[in-house]
Amino acid sequence: MLCREVAPKVIYKLGEEVYIASVERRGPWIYAVCYVRYQTEREECYQVVLKLKAGTRYFLGRCDCRDFKYRGGPCKHIVRAKVALREYSKLKAK
């Protein structure tokens, strides 16, 4: 997906690297859809879906990148999206 298509519809952006499109709470879980820029192709973004258990450090994530599909573990895009979500949560708490 192109980042310029995502940018106008986001609720929070961390620099020009991470865009948070939506955050919703379902019971004890927080679901977030984020877009993180590619490292090599600056106009493209990976979609990252996070599922965090509120009040804990437990989370599940899914990314569209090749690294996540190959290894299956949290990639750097998931980590960046989680950091952006933490910053967004701090702003909402104020």
Automatic annotation (TrEMBL):
Keywords: Metal-binding, Zinc, Zinc-finger. One of its GO terms (molecular function) is zinc ion binding. PROSITE patterns: ZF_SWIM. Residues 46-86 form the SWIM-type domain. This is Zinc finger, SWIM domain protein. Pfam families: SWIM. It comes from the Archaea.
